[in-house]
């Protein structure tokens, strides 16, 4: 059945067919049998089951469930038989609901919480969501509908909502297109898309979650359906937004705003956040397909240390394995992996290795034998094994939706962990198969006991693989925080892994795309994300690589990677001029680590996205919608990466408030654009006035850090601004037992003084004793500085007043 024609059928519904609820249409494109579309009819009754309300039209049932004060879930059962209530995405389906109420009115029923009201219209079965003031935030355009799927006997399920005239749409994961998805029609089906292009769809991930923003108010829709799903944001018909699926249940969560930050936070509250990564995972990572043999790896490590360019991780791509057999070593290239990894570790490098899902069919290979004996590999509908070619040649593939197979897979990492491997990179897990793309639909999956075909399991296959990887590393590392990275993902994968955007290209267009994709991933719940710095395929010149490194400093995950058929791609590969700038920016990443780490903590603990598009900072301004090249990292640093060759200046919009240029500390009024010089050694970076930014001294890697004093740059503001600094061991889960420090710095400024109050919460003890405070932008001359009521001396460094204080100070006044 042609996908496009299904949609046309949906959209060509007439009033008459709505009345009868049934529509018979001949498919105009293909000569297929008639399709029967059914629409919900008039509501004739309801029933309550705790915080769920069930409404029926006599044949179909719709469940409206209050999940939290701000989240309502809708489910449709065409014949009143709901499917199993099981989700890989949702980790927290039952949250605290303070109060909710049900009411029957003349023409509708309402289910209300303190913040949102869901309205179910009796005559039409149309559903709407209103805020507390009665304003409609989101509403159905047509009643929910479905059609019998002739291919497998299930349903295609559809929901069509009203798209407001100026409504903008965000989210949906890794779509390589403009931030605002208005006018786009998109598909979710995890796909291996080497050298993808602008607007290509689908790519590697399926995140069926979007944010609607209209008249400055935002809401979210999370369509928790793992089948192939589609979204149309006013592409076919300007005033409609539709989402639909080739199977499964029409089940979605309405997530109330009104702020986009609230929506993302609440989306995280149901699908989880990324745990706090090990600190080293936030350093600079160097990857290539592939660094081998061992001598090449040593040479690389030496390349970093001899040039004093910081680096925390070196990656081994597929060539470290014996004939691409997962969990083995090529002993010719790597005769003693344990020794090599130890030598690297002593020099401050972690080793990360790739693991793919394809297991070579080879009866002399222990992993294949174990998988075969225990029936862990996927089978086709006729019971034969699913076989396909990937790097090792003929392969079979574990069914990661089988909990037993996941457990087995988790244990397979023992050898790698014993050898000292610190992190695992899961690739090709869409799953990718050479020649045919992916598995055929008839492959059977366990789906954690809720069995299904590949139609249902395809989009979660990679997620379940990296989940097993995460579980294994966590257990084998005795509770140390694992580091994993995955290419394929479904909503909720952030609980187990970071992601990268896959096989991009060394072009300026791709650099710009990366800026869009990482912002989009971040607001879609996948904040720990990065691009292949420099572009995977093709050859960047020095300028492009350097600009990409600069963007990398503000990418949550910072890794350079390149395909094997390209020239060398290390920070020094493009000559001394570029090397010096690359070094300066990688050092900047390390200086900012305490700030970056604190932003990751906010993500882990509260569900705030790490990258925030400008629209998110000032969503009431429609003029921000086209501003898609700049974003904030956390709430204190705004950046606008340079994404054009030869660009010597850039106009940057600063949101309302006051900002400091990071480079020259010049003060700027926000709410307007500024022209910023962008010679190759600068990218626009602005710090919010009132911020306290912690900085580490330059280090060669996180393990080699020596922090005797923490630098705090205090940016004056004539108002009150709060900053947070988070600190802990950096690699254990002790933070879950409150072994951490959360420092709150409250800055209060006026014309003649600046006060900084610090309160400290938590049980961790830092390794340093003092702070070095730099006061930037003071509008007055200092007469005295008091710390906890004692006068202290200060000095001046390049005109900036500096004072050293005990890390435990409570109150500091500069006047
Ligand atoms: C895929 C990955 C790429 C990797 C290559 C070889 O193309 O996306 O990152 O280097 O496979 O393993």
UniProtKB/TrEMBL annotation:
Residues 61-232 form the Glycoside hydrolase family 31 N-terminal domain. Residues 709-777 form the DUF5110 domain. Keywords: Glycosidase, Hydrolase. One of its GO terms (molecular function) is hydrolase activity. It comes from the Bacteria. Residues 275-598 form the Glycoside hydrolase family 31 TIM barrel domain. Residues 607-693 form the Glycosyl hydrolase family 31 C-terminal domain. SUPFAM superfamilies: (Trans)glycosidases (SSF51445), Galactose mutarotase-like (SSF74650), Glycosyl hydrolase domain (SSF51011). Belongs to the glycosyl hydrolase 31 family. This is Glycoside hydrolase family 31 protein. It comes from Olivibacter ginsenosidimutans.
């Amino acid at each position: 059945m042609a996908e496009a024609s299904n949609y046309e059928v949906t959209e060509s519904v007439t009033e008459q067919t709505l009345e009868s609820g049934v529509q018979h249409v001949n498919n105009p494109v293909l000569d297929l049998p008639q399709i029967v579309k059914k629409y919900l009819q008039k509501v004739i009754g309801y029933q309550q089951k705790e915080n769920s309300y069930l409404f029926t039209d006599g044949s179909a049932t719709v469940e409206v469930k209050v999940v939290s004060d701000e989240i309502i879930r809708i489910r449709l059962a065409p014949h009143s038989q709901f499917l199993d209530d099981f989700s890989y995405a949702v980790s927290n389906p039952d949250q605290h609901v303070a109060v909710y109420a049900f009411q029957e009115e003349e023409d509708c029923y309402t289910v209300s919480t303190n913040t949102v009201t869901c309205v179910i219209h009796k005559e039409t079965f149309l559903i709407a969501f209103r805020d507390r003031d009665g304003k409609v935030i989101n509403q159905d355009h047509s009643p929910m509908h479905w059609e019998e799927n002739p291919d497998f006997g299930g349903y295609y399920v559809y929901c069509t909502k009203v798209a407001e005239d100026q409504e903008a749409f965000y989210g949906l994961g890794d779509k390589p297109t403009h931030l605002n998805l208005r006018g786009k029609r998109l598909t979710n089906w995890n796909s291996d898309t080497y050298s993808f292009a602008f607007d290509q769809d689908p790519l590697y991930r399926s995140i069926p979650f979007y944010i609607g923003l209209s008249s400055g108010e935002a809401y979210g829709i999370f369509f928790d359906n793992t089948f192939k799903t589609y979204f149309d944001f006013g592409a076919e018909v300007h005033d409609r937004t539709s989402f639909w699926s080739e199977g499964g249940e029409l089940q979605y969560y309405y997530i109330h705003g009104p702020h986009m930050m609230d929506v993302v936070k609440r989306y995280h509250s149901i699908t989880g956040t990324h745990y706090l990564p090990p600190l080293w995972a936030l350093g600079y990572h160097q990857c290539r397909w592939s660094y081998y043999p061992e001598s090449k790896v040593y040479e690389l490590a030496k390349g970093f240390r001899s040039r004093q360019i910081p680096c925390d991780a070196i990656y081994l791509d597929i060539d470290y394995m014996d004939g691409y057999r997962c969990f083995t070593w090529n002993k010719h290239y790597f005769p003693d992996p344990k020794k090599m990894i130890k030598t690297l570790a002593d020099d401050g490098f972690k080793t990360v290795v790739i693991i793919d899902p394809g297991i070579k069919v080879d009866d002399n290979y222990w992993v294949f034998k174990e998988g075969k004996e225990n029936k862990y590999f996927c089978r086709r509908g006729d019971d034969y094994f699913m076989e396909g070619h990937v790097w090792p040649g003929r392969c079979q593939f574990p069914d990661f939706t089988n909990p037993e197979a996941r457990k087995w897979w988790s244990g397979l990492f023992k050898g790698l962990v014993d050898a000292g491997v610190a992190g695992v990179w899961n690739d090709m897990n869409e799953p990718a198969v050479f020649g045919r793309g992916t598995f055929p639909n008839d492959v059977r999956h366990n789906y954690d006991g809720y069995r299904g075909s590949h139609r249902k399991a395809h989009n979660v296959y990679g997620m379940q693989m990296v989940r097993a990887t995460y579980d294994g590393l966590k257990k084998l590392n005795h509770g140390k925080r694992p580091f994993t990275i995955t290419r394929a993902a479904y909503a909720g994968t952030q609980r187990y892994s970071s992601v990268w955007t896959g096989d991009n290209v060394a072009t300026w267009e791709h650099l710009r795309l990366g800026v869009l994709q990482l912002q989009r991933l971040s607001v879609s719940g996948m904040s720990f994300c990065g691009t292949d710095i420099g572009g995977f395929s093709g050859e960047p010149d020095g300028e492009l690589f350097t600009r990409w490194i600069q963007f990398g400093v503000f990418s949550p995950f910072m890794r350079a990677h390149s395909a094997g058929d390209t020239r060398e791609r290390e920070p020094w590969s493009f000559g001394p001029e570029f090397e010096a700038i690359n070094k300066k920016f990688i050092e900047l990443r390390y200086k900012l680590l305490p700030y970056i780490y604190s932003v990751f903590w906010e993500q882990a603990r509260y569900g705030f996205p790490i990258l925030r598009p400008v629209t998110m900072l000032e969503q009431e301004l429609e003029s921000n919608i086209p501003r898609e090249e700049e974003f904030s990292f956390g709430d204190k640093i705004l950046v606008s990466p340079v994404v054009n060759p030869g660009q010597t200046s850039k106009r940057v919009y600063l949101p309302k408030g006051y900002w400091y240029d990071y480079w020259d500390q010049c003060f700027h009024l926000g709410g307007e654009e500024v022209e910023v010089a962008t010679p190759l050694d600068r990218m626009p970076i602005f710090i919010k006035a009132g911020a306290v930014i912690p900085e580490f001294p330059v280090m060669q890697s996180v393990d080699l850090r020596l922090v005797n004093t923490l630098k705090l740059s205090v940016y004056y503001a004539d108002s009150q601004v709060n900053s947070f600094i988070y600190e802990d061991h950096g690699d254990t889960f002790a933070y879950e037992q409150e072994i951490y420090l959360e420092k709150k710095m409250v800055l209060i400024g006026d014309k003649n003084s600046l006060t900084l109050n610090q309160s400290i919460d938590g049980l961790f003890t830092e390794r340093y004793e003092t702070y070095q405070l730099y006061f930037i932008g003071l509008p007055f001359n200092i007469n005295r500085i008091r710390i906890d009521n004692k006068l202290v001396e200060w000095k001046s460094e390049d005109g900036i007043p500096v004072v050293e204080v005990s890390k435990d100070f409570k109150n500091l006044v500069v006047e």
